[in-house]
Each structure stands twice: as structure tokens, then as C-alpha cells.
Amino acid sequence: MTGPSYDLLVGLHALSAVVGFGAVGVSGTYAARARSAAEPRQDPGLQRYFHPSTNWAERSLLLTPVLGAIVLWAGDRSAVWQVWPWIGLGCWILAAAIATSRCWPAERRIQTWLADVPESRERPLPGLAEFREACRSVQWGASATSLCFLAAVVAMIWQPR
Question: Which CA distances in Å does 55 have to 83, 99, 136, 157?
Fold first, then answer.
């Protein structure tokens, strides 16, 4: 397959990676902000970003290998026998494992803590240490997935044989 259809597939593959990994990176940035905030529940930006829901932009990174496989099989199939697509897939597997095991569960804990406004004004805030640990987990995970993304992009562009 060549032409506009193939180009569209390549574009969708790249877009899913940029959106998915970019959204994980943004979550890491917001988690850093939340971790350093004196009163995280008083920050409307944090409340908006970490409202209880699924971050579908982050989940779009799950489409990346599916679209990559379609691109690989629809295009020049000789690339299947080269090392670069498998390096990219390996980077994606590691990144997906980090996102699903560390980032996304920690984000749910952040969302729950921010949404749970206690009746009392107890100090220190109950659960604050666990909240900050969840933020640290998202930060670490976002950094690690960003490195995986960078390695995959280098492999896709360089295409070692």
C-alpha cells in the first residue's frame, strides 16, 4: 500500500503516540505541581485536571502499536524483518507497563484524594503523605515513559537494520 491511505495510517500512528505520551507527560507536570502545593485541594487548576474520570488522551497511547502494526503490514513488509520496529515495540511495551501499573493507578488515587473534601479542617491534611507519594509515582512514571517515547522515536527515524 502506498499513497494517501498509507500516509494517513502513518499520521494516525504518530498522532496516537504524540497524544498518548504527551498526555502522560502533562499528567506528570500536574502531579509535580500538586506534589509541591501547600493546599492542593484549594488549587482550581489541579481540581480541573485531576477530576475523577478516565484520561482518554493518555489511553490513546494504547492505539500506537495497533496502528504501527497496520502500517508495518500495509507498507513495505521487508521492515518486519528489520530491528527498528521491534525496538519501537519494546519501548512501547515498557512504557505501557509503566503507565498501566504506576501512572494510571496513582492518578486515580490523586483524583480520589482531591475529590474527597473532609468535613474538618484537620492539620496536617489526612492522607497528604499518600497523596504526595501518588504524585511522585505519576512524576516518575511520566519521566520514564517520556524516555521510552524518545527512544522509540529515535529508532523509528534512524531505522537501524
Answer: 32, 12, 18, 29
Of the candidates 7, 10, 154, the residue with the CA atom closest to the CA atom of residue 68: 10
- Residue 87 confidence class, pLDDT cut points 50, 70, 90: very high
Q: pLDDT category, 25, cuts 50, 70, 90?
A: very high
Residue-by-residue DSSP string for 105-142: HHHHHHHHHHH---SS--SSPTTHHHHHHHHHHHHHHH
What is the radius of gyration, based on Cα positions, of the chain?
Answer: 19
Rounded Cα distance between 73 and 85, Å, is 11
Q: How far apart are CA 159 and CA 152, in angstroms?
A: 10
The string of pLDDT tens digits covering residues 56-86 is 999 999 999 999 999 999 987 888 899 999 9
Within 10 Å of residue 118's Cβ, how many Cβ atoms?
A: 10
The amino acid at residue 117 is: V
Neighbours of 8 (CB within 10 A): 10
The answer to whether the beta carbons of residues 94 and 148 sit under 8 Å apart is: yes
pLDDT at residue 47 in the model: 96
